[in-house]
Write a structure and sequence with these properties.
The complex is a heterodimer of chains A (542) and B (87).
Chain A: H1 10-34, H2 39-45, H3 52-58, H4 64-67, H5 69-77, H6 80-85, H7 91-110, H8 115-123, H9 126-158, H10 178-229, H11 236-245, H12 266-282, H13 284-291, H14 296-327, H15 337-345, H16 352-391, H17 397-420, H18 426-450, H19 456-481, H20 496-514, H21 520-527
Helix pairs in contact in A: 1-10, 1-16, 2-10, 3-10, 3-14, 5-14, 7-12, 7-14, 7-18, 8-9, 9-10, 9-16, 9-17, 9-18, 9-19, 10-14, 10-16, 10-17, 11-14, 12-18, 15-16, 16-17, 18-19, 18-20, 19-20
Chain B: H1 2-21, E1 31-32, E2 35-36, H2 37-61, H3 73-76
Antiparallel strand pairs in B: 1-2
Classes of the chains: A mainly alpha (542), B mainly alpha (87).
Amino acid sequence: MADAAPGVGYGTLTMLLVVMAVSVWLGSRAQRAVEKGGFVKGYFLGNRGLGAWALALTATVQSGGTFMGFPALVYTHGWIVALWIAGYMVVPITGFAVLGKRFAQLSRRTGAITIPDLFDARFGDQRVGVLASVFIMGFMTFLMIAQFKAGAIVMKLAWPGAGALALSETTAAGGIDQAYLLGLAIFSLTVVGYTLIGGFLASVWTDMFQSVLMAIGVALLFFMIVPLASQGGFQAPTLDAVAATGPDFAFGPGLAKEGKPSFLPLGVAISFFFVWPIGGIGSPASMVRVMACKDNATMRRSIVLLSFYNALIYVPLILICICGRALMPNVASADEIIPRLAIWSTREWTGGSFISGLILAAPFGAVMATVSTYLVVIASGVVRDIYQRFLRPRAGDGEIRRVSHVVMILFGVIGVAANIQPVDFLQKLVVFSTTSTASTFVAPALMLAFWRRATAAGAIAGMLAGAVTILALFSCGPLLESKNFFDPYQLLGLDPIVWGLAVSATAGLAVSFVTVPPPAALVSRLFDARPIATTPASASAI
Amino acid sequence: MALVIWLAAMLYTITYCYLYGYGRSVESLTFVWWFPDWVFWGIIVPWGVCIVLSTVFALGVMGDESLGEEIDAEVSILPGEDEVRHG
């Protein structure tokens, strides 16, 4: 009877409230740290003081999805999801060592606070910065809205007697659940509140907090679930799950849902070795965190810490969910597998509700941290890249602070309003936005960081080409293959991100070669240990 | 070196998993601890190797040079300050 939905006690709600309280406390601590330096650099970049743990645990792509969407994939498709996520084995070294270190250097040499700042300064052309800012705000807003919905649903889950594991915002009658709306209100007030108080550092510190919670949650689940499912031997969980589902659960391309294409054909498997390493560091939220890194030694230690952290999170999670399929083979909504396992395995323990609450607090904390991160990036885009750049260049700290707060509240309201009647396809919208962000920014970012000959026109072409390619492939899915909205057309069996990156890089290279090279002095300032003198005469082609 | 590790990990993992993890029968499956053989040798082992290589690279190969002096971020945005800006 493990498949039956267990009830949720007060412990779960208590643990979520504890997470909220800690987050607000971290926000107030962050505010004190911000006060130590200039407001803009402190509020939007944490005074460039991130240490190794903060950088390792917050600068890549762990989010609410790590503890919600990923387990659902393993439960549904089986062992092949291990290959789907395997690209994470190289995320630390590619993310930090290839692009991260260079970004940290360039942001210091230019004084850049935001990603558009950096594009502007590197290419000496405000149009590049403005275009970057527009893309970042657009993509980040979509991502943030989806996270509000996830946060509200987890809050609803925690209400004792509220239908417990109905991971949905609707009631059985089809209306919007009052518990969902209350959860949305509480979640939004908390996350906007502490982000508004502490800015960038608040989002980083709460992100660290949720990463620790996630590690604790995974460890607890591993030791509770895996021995239970392995009583018949190491092979028992897999063989039991295969018996309940079919042989595809143990092999590639994975167990497919009825009427759906196979999960991981070869082309898509190759694609995801690009998606994770590049998507992680290609996100503006990640880029800005490596810009905030304290020093190079911090980055080196972060590579080591993140290497171990990724393995210790993802490999046990895969095992837990394989065991979950063996123990609960017929869960209708795969998203519920972690909550169900947590509640079911602690049901007979004294205080078991608090332990399951601790496990469920991990995805909740992750969603809060993700919203907080996006709020800071969006607010910095509006305040730094638009308001301060074009409207009030000499605005003082007090004015910038007030405008930042207004922008965060405004986007918080947008997040709530968009989720009162939540639209469908939000999860797919997240994938679309993530893919678009990486395709738009990765090639121009590499050009920015490593290629002296790259021009402003080339960077603009790279961004536009990447974005248009993704838009076209996502449009072709419904148009050519009658797929659902946001189900992309996989040209030659490859994920759209591969084409987006390829077209973006080609456009960036080609346009850079046919346009006038950037001024020598500008490039020298960013690439040479001893820059050449900045004089009008030196501003010639290189 | 980082890109070489990335490329090598991708080639090995994809090739091994495609050869030994796709289109097999359950009867041929063996296990190493909890893992099907193709998952252990195709994913877990290279993941462990990547951790070792990343650690060696980060602590032994990657230089520890300064990230550079920072210019004043609070004022760098003001237009007209940078004589090489041409936008």
